[in-house]
């Protein structure tokens, strides 16, 4: 499984949320991949992988967007995504989406085989440990659901985080419990989603952590906004930002600035 | 049982504002999930056994007619009777006919979700036959006139104080000064109360965890012992079971039993695992004179081979429910019918009237915890998604959602429009955001999109190549 | 008489099975005639040397009490001590297996044994187990005229006489043991009756016995 290409051509697929609400995660990913020895490209026509449509049962639109993604992601050695959720959409769900399509199923399988979530890619494929500038804090890691259960991302981010100077990693009890984001779920069922994230925050408080790190911006935005609502000063960072050392004082955590 | 799945949102509001319920639900993860993890840790072959269990169930569904016929033949050879029932009404009639024929005035029951599905208790009551639930949890909720909130722990939503209150109300003949402040006192009271009922009932009605085709045996598991007493004390034993529960042989049954209790309660084995094969034999000192198996279809044969085929592998352990973050937020009653949690959200829309349970498959983050603990590897998130797909193609998905997705897709497949537009929108949002209440707590965007910032960086001279 | 429900249900099943290209009578026949164990975990295949130890450990973990006796002669005094310790009377409902009749009951005046079906007021019931299963410390009670099933369920204390020679590693071995003589009720009992239906708090003695006491007889 390990990479054997000298300077692999990597397409970074940043995801809608990173593109629109947290560009620094994209820059962190570029830095990490470049330092790992990849030639990084950002396909400029990239938009949305189609997951919202797919999870809403809108197969036609999901296929439209998936076909578009397959076109623009052709030809790269690897496609890397700083998200377990969007990563799994391509790696796990595209093949299902085109399972009955004689023309496209092979292409979907091919893309799925080349697609990796960022941290797993660095750890399992490139086998690198990013060099970083240290992070001072008591940190806990939240496993995002798709990454954990569809892509088996569990140990990789923890292993890399453990190498960071000053970073104290503690597990919280509910690390593997869903934060209640769920894409459109939190819009359609805000009350259920609110109770779910409140329980997560209670658990974060119990863990004594001052920072929560995750690999998916969806979870992080959900946590950050409810932490702000409850005025809890726990910082939220994307794991790529921490690993790339993009946490200097002039760069704020994901939380709203008031905190 | 009357379905309330169509009022899902109202059910949810009620559950979320119920403080005692929220406290109980908040502690659920400390119970079954923890015990399951311990049981799994004690059995290195657990995942291998799950794989085998899934294979057995899949094989049964591929040959269901053959196994059912064989099971029927064996039950008859053993001296029992098999009743095939197409729907709930057929099953109710068969059961009440037997009760009338033997002059039963009361029926003791051990926990059976199928019996909730067909609403047999109310039906028998209407005909003057008392139906008495004997599983402690079922007994409690029967007194409270509530439906079960969990398939293996029906009263899991109640506190001890609520149970004590229920007993005081429903056992008025007992000393009013008695103390009921411990679970032990409550259990002892129920045990004494139900003992007479056990001994006095002419008919015992139980469910079944499995039907063994090889021997014509019915497998029933219980921790309390009430199932064995339901099968062994009355003159007539009626087993109510759905058709997909058959398994090929005794070894297959044991393969499933090795994962059933571990997945459900985290026990290595349920206390009483009983194989019942026919009625009382000539020299036996106890046991029922009549043994009936009511085989209920109620929509299952139609699921076979369809999009929800895999759901028929379910062995009703409740692991998906125990690990579901939605269930542990809203509780079982919010789902509005017999089966809560992920398995219920897949099963109910197929068994109830079209459109009445549309919320259930949508009220999920698709977090996948359910699938990861399912002992028979049912791809529950995929099945939930399939319901969403069906709703979408039947145009039952809300207009707002359909319109929103159409607009989003229209834009997203036009990157030359999408990127500048989103960049503009972000700048606009940066200005007006603080005034928009629902977004006030959301982190502020960085002012410009990644794609736009990247493009600017790349177009600057000396920015180097991309590697 | 043709049952329309039966035919209709089977018809729908067969149609679905055929559409999927499934349905394999040969495979089914094979599975119904040559029952073979699937996966038996390591814990269910203990060496003979640790069979007894594994059984006792597992039975105790499930909440049963186990006493090892060298021979049947030791049963009355052990049982009497046990019942007195738990404040129970000396009336014992027993099955009528010849092995049980061979016990020198008169050696212990505290005990009064009575065979026949169990009643709702019996405090103690004693039956002979068909097997003990080391894997989970389970005893197999097979109903028969000599072993009425409710003796295992109705009393407060359930006493099980288990000859050491009847210990097996796993459940599948009991299938061989039973062979073609499937009892009317084969009850595999793992620990005493229990419930956790009130606030998930575990309590012993729900409807069935509160205590399970296994007398493991080495010489048998």
Strand order of the largest sheet of chain A: 2-1-3-4
What fraction, in percent, of the residue positions of chain A are helical? Answer: 40-55%
Q: Strand pairing plus helix content of chain C: what structural class?
A: alpha/beta
Total beta-strand segments of chain A: 8
Please identify, by name, the CATH architecture of the largest domain in chain C.
Answer: 3-Layer(aba) Sandwich
CATH superfamily descriptor of the largest domain in chain C:
NagB/RpiA/CoA transferase-like
The whole-angstrom Rg of chain A is 18 Å
Q: Would you identify the regions of chain C where 5 or more consecutive residues have pLDDT less than 50?
A: none
- Order of strands, main sheet of chain C, comes to 1-12-7-4-2-3
What percent strand of chain C?
A: 15-25%
Task: Specify the overall morphology of chain C.
Answer: elongated
Q: Output the helix-strand order of chain A.
A: EHHEHHEHHEHEHHEHHEHEH
Low-confidence stretches of chain A: none
User: Count the helices of chain A. How many?
Assistant: 13
SSE class of chain A: alpha/beta
Distance linking N and C termini of chain A: 43 Å
CA-based shape of chain A: globular
Mind explaining what this structure looks like?
The complex is a heterotrimer of chains A (259), B (467) and C (220). Chain A is α/β, with parallel strands linked by helices and 259 residues long. Chain A is built from 13 helices and eight strands. The longest helix of chain A has 18 residues, at 190-207. The model of chain A has no long low-confidence stretch (mean pLDDT 94). Chain B has helices spanning 8-16, 19-26, 32-41, 46-62, 64-77, 88-101, 113-118, 120-126, 136-143, 160-170, 183-200, 226-232, 250-264, 300-303, 319-322, 327-330, 341-351, 359-362, 369-373, 380-393, 399-412, 415-432, 450-459; strands at 81-85, 106-109, 130-133, 203-206, 210-212, 217-222, 236-242, 246-247, 272-276, 290-296. Mean pLDDT of chain B is 94; it is low at 463-467. The model of chain C has no long low-confidence stretch (mean pLDDT 95). In chain C, 28% of the residues lie in helices and 23% in strands. Classes of the chains: A alpha/beta (259), B alpha/beta (467), C alpha/beta (220). Chains in contact: A-B, B-C. Strand 9 of chain B pairs antiparallel with strand 9 (185-189) of chain C.
